Amino acid sequence: MTRQVWFALLMLAVAAPLNAQSLMHRAPDLGGTWVSDGGVVQFNFVHRFHVFPGPANTVINYPTFTLAAGVGHNVDFGLRFGTRSNIPSSGGSSNESEFFARWRVLGGPEGTEGFAVAVTPAYNKLAKSADGEVGIDWTRGPFTVSGAARGMSKPLGASGAKASFGGGVVARVTPYVALSADVGSFVGPTTLAVWGVALNVVIPGSPHTFAFEAGNASLNSIQGNSLGSNDVRYGFEFTIPLHLKRFAPWFHGKPRPSAVGDVSAPVAATVRLAAYKFATDTVTIAAGQAIRWVNDDPVEHTVTFDGAEPGSPLIPANGSFAHRFDRAGRYAYHCTPHPFMKGVVIVK
Q1: Partners of 59 in the beta sheet?
Q2: CB–CB of 336/35 below 8 Å?
Q3: CB 121 within 8 A of CB 101
Q4: How far apart are CA 6 and CA 222, in angstroms?
Q5: Residue 312 in contact with residue 261, Cβ under 8 Å?
Q6: Which of 15, 117, 151, 218 is the most buried (most CB within 10 A)?
Q7: Tens digits of residue pLDDT in 250-302
Q8: Is the separation of the CB atoms in 10 and 1 below 8 Å?
Q9: Euclidean distance between CA atoms 94 and 81, whole angstroms
Q10: DSSP 8-state class, residue 23
């Protein structure tokens, strides 16, 4: 087993799930504009396979591991590692490693209404290629439309083409079920186009999402998502978030308090968190007053503001978080483990 895979498994062992890149807003062969929160490590596992016809009925697996860590506001760094790459290698290796960074230059957290834009520079070690992608998302209600423009210095040998384009759509049937599809291709007349379809679901009671996928993408990297294969590959994708600060109280031997934040501030309103939503979408208060959020769900939530306003740590079941607002304005927020949970505070 490679060092990259061992590192991914080690991260799974030392941290616990929290935030996940939600497959409810992303098609199977597009990176989207999502960026992990600071202090959160994102682990995605894509496993696709193809069964060749008899008499052998051979099963060929095409796994891809993605590991990314948020290092600040709207920036993360990561690694994608996949086997059975289509990139020719003089050394005989078919293992493809892609090191990347992503910067969301426009837009709020995943699922925010309107446009979002992200820039992803990358380096493909097997191809020895400097790659890059500009991703655009537009979300309105239950729909997200995405596009991607990609470039690479040493492509997969796709007729010498050094650019590709892709696009996709996601339709959220319910807050827990979505359908998605995408297409893409290198800019070259002799290359095979990429296509993919998926049924995406939120796993209840957890921050994880899961997708049943089918398509012909070569591998889940910038170059792999640009070149189609001759066979249809079926499989799944599973998102696993890892929060490095989650066990901090355990390391220090101190229990987490059930009430945190500005607990002595004058509370003007209480917002309850239940059934994976904020009971009140919009709350209006006066400057100098506070809001208390009370978690009635059996799982942990956060109150994470989209701007620079400090938010909460993980709020345990039956716990609460209070925050005082000293300046007038509009403060949009979401839950980090469950980004489809959103609310707004208006301070007058």
Answers
A1: 51
A2: no
A3: yes
A4: 23
A5: yes
A6: 218
A7: 444 445 567 888 888 889 999 999 888 898 889 999 999 999 999 998 888 99
A8: no
A9: 11
A10: G
Please determine, for residue 160, whether its predicted confidence score (pLDDT) is greater than 70.
yes
In single-letter form, the type of residue at position 95 comes to N
Instruction: Name the token pair of 81.
Output: 């590692």
Q: What is the separation of C-alpha 117 from the centre of its chain, rounded to a whole number of angstroms? A: 14
DSSP 25: G
β-strand partners of 168: 146, 182
Over the stretch 3-33, which tens digit does the pLDDT of each residue have? 444 343 333 333 333 334 578 888 999 988 8
In this structure, what token pair is assigned to residue 283?
Answer: 């709350």
Rounded Cα gap, residues 291 and 228, in angstroms = 51
Rounded CA gap, 118 and 89, in Å? 30
- Note whether 231 and 195 are within 8 A (CB): no
- How many Å apart are CA 188 and CA 125, to the nearest integer? 23
Tell me the pTM: 0.67
**What average pLDDT is seen over the chain?**
83
